Amino acid sequence: xxxxxxxxxxxxxxxxxxxxxxxxxxxxFACAAAKTTVAIPKRAVFMGIGFGVTKxxxxxxxxxxxxxxxxxxxxxxxxxHKQDFTIIQGCxxxxxxxAHWGSTFWLTGANRYSVPGQNMANxxxxxxxxxxxxxxxxxxxxxxxxxxxxSASGHxxxxxxxxxKRGKPISGFNDPVKTFHKLFSxxxxxxxxRQAAIAEKRSVLDxxxxxxxxxxxxxxxxxxxxxxxxxxxxxxxxTRLGKDEDWLDKPKPKxxxxxxxxxxxxxxxxxxxxxxxxxxxxxxxxxALTYRMPGQSLLKSMDFTHSAHNVSHYSPGERMEAxxxxxxxxxxxxxxxxxxxxxxxEADGSSLFDHTSLAxxxxxxxxxxxxNCPTLLAGGGANLKLGEHLVLPKDxxxxxxxxxxxxxxxxxxxxxxxxxxxxxxxxA
Length: 428
Known about the structure:
It is a single chain. The chain is of the alpha/beta class. It is about 35% helix and about 10% strand. Residues about 1-35 have low confidence and may be disordered.
């Protein structure tokens, strides 16, 4: 039996599950049938900084491991959450060789030279693995936020922290106001016009595929490989169009926050992006988010005049003071974000924090070193051992941490990037 390609794509995303909302009767239903349970979804948020941290004041002492370690100066603003996050030392991405690229391979662990004849290749990022398995039931399979100032903040190539299964960069929202409207503002275009626009895009794809199939015969092996990648790109577009079509007549949720003011930068922008992440999770608009964070504008908002790059080359004096202050500011903002996750309740009385996995860190450890990537994991969404300081053997693949996190969320994954196995010390 032949299966119509469009109908299949439409059908593949047809089962849309609503979150368990008290306002539409969850609590009343639960009282009437106490044995009925509603599964609260798992979520994952990855927050990447560029040039790393201050080695002397961010990392806890390697002599103190387990639960009874002393919190470092750089992490001290997180003290009230100490039982709910774990610091991991000793991890790196073995293929990393660019001391200014703090996020390009952070979530992928890829070898940039893995494709013969290319000096830049990547692979799927951990957040997109989550999106591929948990993103079918939400309006947005994933959301990427980016207020990074580009290379000025030490992030390297990419449009966000996210890379698709072909290793291609995924663009991110770089403005809080636009992000707010994407999440919560009603569409201006009438439904019929939006349906027509999707139909037109499908028609263009059909024409492109017809032409590509026509020229496929007689191509060299390399050209066929390129064409296969091209076809995969077309299939990805069709999948997105199918998802857009499924949500055409479903109104966006009411915004739980006010529209952000324009022009936010640095510290205020990070605060607002965290609020938008919280709102996206709270409304179950997505279950996979990444945030490529600013460095340059953050320092400027803290009244430091040195560039993020120069601050990364700290030595005792003003630049080291700026580096230490930046670390503490990141911890302060992260602590406030965790406060809000904990105070936001699910329909069953648990908190959003209980079902969300948070990862904070960078591919660069300190100055321009690529070993011992700073890694903080928090939240109850991945069944991990929290409240710990783990010091793993030197150069343990960072992807072992991501694999452990993915499996702890219930994601089906045997490996990720250059992983060699899970981190057993991290498993609850």
